[in-house]
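## Example record

The block below lists the input lines for one assembly entry, exactly as stored, with component labels intact.
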Amino acid sequence: MSHSNQPEAQLLARILKQAGGVSHRTQGGRLPVGIGDDAALYRPSPRNETILTCDWFLDGTHFLVEKHPAESIGWKCLARAVSDVAAMGGMPRCFLLNLALPASRSGAWLDEFLKGLRMAIRAFGCDLAGGDTTRSKQVLLNIAVIGEVAAGFGVTRSGARAGDSIFVSGRLGEAELGLRLVGLKKGPLHSKNPLLQKHLYPEPRLALGQWLAKNRLATAMMDLSDGLSSDLPRLCAASKSGAQIDATLIPTPRGLAASKRLQLALHGGDDYELLFTVKPQNALRIPAKIAGVRLTRIGTITAATRLVVKTGNGKIEELKNRGWDPFC
Amino acid sequence: MSHSNQPEAQLLARILKQAGGVSHRTQGGRLPVGIGDDAALYRPSPRNETILTCDWFLDGTHFLVEKHPAESIGWKCLARAVSDVAAMGGMPRCFLLNLALPASRSGAWLDEFLKGLRMAIRAFGCDLAGGDTTRSKQVLLNIAVIGEVAAGFGVTRSGARAGDSIFVSGRLGEAELGLRLVGLKKGPLHSKNPLLQKHLYPEPRLALGQWLAKNRLATAMMDLSDGLSSDLPRLCAASKSGAQIDATLIPTPRGLAASKRLQLALHGGDDYELLFTVKPQNALRIPAKIAGVRLTRIGTITAATRLVVKTGNGKIEELKNRGWDPFC
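Predicted structure tokens for the full assembly:
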């Protein structure tokens, strides 16, 4: 870290200065060894389980470096990885930043990126513990997040049973709407456009996930990253069950024709809202909002391993998986 | 995982079948939730600290997909990340596999890659706990390893003091020699060539690192990934000290002219041997070999923050940093 004559060391020093040690929540001896050694040392709390999750975030696949503000890339790379911790009902503790950059991105671009990353570190109380930097032609990011949850309280995808109510947080499809606006706009984006907020600065639903886990209300949970029509089948498969959702109940983006709104809400990805199931006798214990985020019951888990959607005119149709798959 | 109609799910099923659950050492409830959920859940042992480390392994930067056997890429991606756990004196427990692939690599190439990865999982007792897969033009790998070490026993880079003896394991420069042979050879390599073994199938020095940590013999330790002339300055900077090493003591590759051997040993990367320091009164407690790996005293930590090498004819020269830097 002190070898300022070396380019890699310079990059590390820049990252450490701008994103190292900014959250105070995980201090107090939790990270006796952070950035700069062969590995970080982390002290887990007794009686907790460790949550481990990683996410790719690649130029050309997940974002466009020429178009997306560097600050939003910094925010979103951590937000989407932390969202997986929220989906287990846990608290994020620290993360490893894996950053591969072309030389042209190691100046002003990197500073803006680190500004967004720092905002996310503070917002989520998730400290930079280490990582790896290298050179590449494209901007490549991979974030590993380490979280914790009280042993036995982590919520998986596999606990939903026939009769459970299906809930989602927030409105679905808003991030996809933002992505489409990005596609229409030429040149770099301005990050202040309110229609772009959900796409550029998603908010992992940490308070909601923790509340559901602590109160043992969610029988299954996952975050909506690829779209409801892709993610609900995953939850149902893990739970060996099916689902019927009601199109008229799904919370959709505002200010669009009804048919368009539903398509966005069913198939749009990147919302990072939580999808969770609740036993019938507990459904009334779910409030309309938690920490300012609305919660909506959208359907029921079924014993038949079919996924169907009831449309506005009462028809029952198969829910077609049209969400995002990076290999399609 | 059960959505075999989806390409991403097919890839996951292939990884799970070939590399999931093959080590028995970390079973027994240590991974109550593994691959296939939003995140893995891991149960750390009481009184241990968690070791966290990540490593990039990229086509074009760290290996050549057209040239290196896929099996060796699978082995090496885990071996080099596990080496950072060895360097802390710890035991690897599990890892997250981040794999981005072009479609052309998701068949026979992937099978060979997973074969090498499975060999490494078994050899190191380090289980696949999760990760992320996506599509990309190049083969991109990032491995996050989770390890453990008894609280307070982890060995950092910062504890070396003037007078401490400097040791290395194995022979330095053998991996670099292998890399040069790769450069000379046209077309794909045969992995059986003994001169290529260290380059293709490096062995993290887990038993040595654990023995040194357990017996509190190493005052500082790191693994040699970029070359002695790059890595020793890092250990010295972290320890706010300097070093004098003796060129005649450095264990070099066999079967080459003496001058070439020394250059390879000083500046060659990718050896994954351990570099460690020992208090003068403990130097005699270091045996000639641990777990079949030779240990060699190569010099002394000094108070002056200079790094010098004593040559065969008794001259004292500055140790020039000529190891590997991905940004140079």
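Chain B has two domains: 7-150, 165-318. Helices of chain B lie at 7-19, 70-87, 108-124, 174-184, 197-200, 206-214, 228-238, 258-267.
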